[in-house]
Known about the structure:
By secondary structure, the chain is mainly beta. The chain is built from one helix and 15 strands, in the order βββββββββββββββα. The protein has a four-stranded antiparallel beta sheet with strand order 1-2-3-4, with no helix packed on it. A four-stranded antiparallel beta sheet has the order 5-6-7-8, with no helix packed on it. It has a four-stranded antiparallel beta sheet with strand order 9-10-11-12.
Amino acid sequence: MTSFTLSGHTDWVNSVRLYGENTLFSCSDDMLAKRWDLEQRRCVHTYSGHTHHVQSLHLSSRAPPLPRPSPRNAKGKSRVINEEDEQRPFMITGSLDSTMRVWDIETGECLNTIFGHVEGIWSMTFDSLRIVSGSNDGSVKVWDTSSHSCLHTFHTSSAAVNCVALSDTRVVVGDNDGNVRIYDFRNMRSLDTKPLPNTSAAN
């Protein structure tokens, strides 16, 4: 097995994701995300725009496409993912600047900036239907993946939400109090904005 080092970030690297056989994505406290070509062993694109540490990134499940022309927005304009965008792979990053950004992986264009949290986002994930994000203030938000509108907001506790996971029917949340909490989407509406009791059991 051949080992090598990719150099380019200037601060802590917080998350890495393999994409296909020869592509890697990373994000860092240097406020950047990067795309790496593992065959060439170099950075081929840098995604900039966040104003604080980038803590997490996740990628759409589509395979990397062949290069092709891609329309761009006017400078400074953001937009939600439309039907054409849905044919292209995309990345979502979460940052301690309290926002998530949606990126076109091919062009590096920021398709949209998602606002809603009042403190930094420590963790996020998504599938074809929902984005789930967890914040330093203990809040969890569920968003529509296509429109980026917020569907639900609830508080797990006063502790920061460090990690989130998502399935077809459940959201799992881990926080700084040492709790792992599991929620069912069928009951999600009743949780909106309400602090939840500590239901952890002693081992």
